[in-house]
Amino acid sequence: MNQRQALTSFAALSQETRLQIIRLLVVAGPEGLAAGALAEKLEVSPSNISFHLKELEHSGLIGAQRQSRSIIYTANYESLGGLIRFLMEDCCSGHPEICAPAAVVATCCTPKMEEKLQ
Amino acid sequence: MNQRQALTSFAALSQETRLQIIRLLVVAGPEGLAAGALAEKLEVSPSNISFHLKELEHSGLIGAQRQSRSIIYTANYESLGGLIRFLMEDCCSGHPEICAPAAVVATCCTPKMEEKLQ
DNA sequence: TCAATAATTAAAGGACTATTGAAATATGAA
DNA sequence: TTCATATTTCAATAGTCCTTTAATTATTGA
């Protein structure tokens, strides 16, 4: 993740519909969700969800693949992780105390680490 | 950090000059940097840096305080940490594997955790 | 092939954002 | 007070982004 990618990722996440799409796709997991399902859940028009999905796809935060008549979108976990790292590396280079609270969240996600910290 | 704050934070970070301001302020630490110093480092006009600083201040990612003739800007570590947590909590609710790589960065920032993990 | 479904693309508008240059405000020093 | 410094504010312009509607593409089944 370079600065160029981070900028487009931040731009992608700075719009309400798109941020909600990401949240839904992250929770949906590898099976993803169809464009129509997202439009229905978020109560926006098909063309509008399509517009935002294209923005997110262009940023690399999501991926798409056709499945019959539907197009299934999935969160790109590497890109999302990369963006988090980008933010954290910046703060690490200066003042690690920014990262400390994030580390707490990180440990709650990684059981193996939690065990070691007992 | 709620979704409303996250949206304005992402918008604030989605512009090159503003992202660079944040990076400079994070590295600068609690002493911060004057508006003029930032303008000089980033080679933008005083009025332009002022515009972007106001955007960042409005988002809560930075703070300001006058010191003699200069206005000193500092990174708001709590907001930055909160934004990182916001991104990570979303992924935790779904698929923790996003957080795992971030946790590696987090440990490099928190020496105490690194010791425990030995 | 024809109709239905799922989604995208295109065009037009209105709204917001960024940049520039000039004028205004605030502070400190002579 | 007057001048210089540091920064902000204002107004105008250009550019970008979001939404809407209508038209188009792709796929499936009768």
Automatic annotation (TrEMBL), chains A, B:
InterPro entries: ArsR-like_HTH, HTH_ArsR_DNA-bd_dom, Metal_resp_trans_reg, WH-like_DNA-bd_sf, WH_DNA-bd_sf. Residues 1-95 form the HTH arsR-type domain. SUPFAM superfamilies: Winged helix' DNA-binding domain. Signal peptide: none annotated. Pfam families: HTH_20 (PF12840). The keyword Transcription regulation applies. The keyword S-adenosyl-L-methionine does not apply. Keywords: DNA-binding, Transcription, Transcription regulation. GO terms for molecular function: DNA binding; DNA-binding transcription factor activity. CDD domains: HTH_ARSR (cd00090). This is DNA-binding transcriptional regulator, ArsR family.
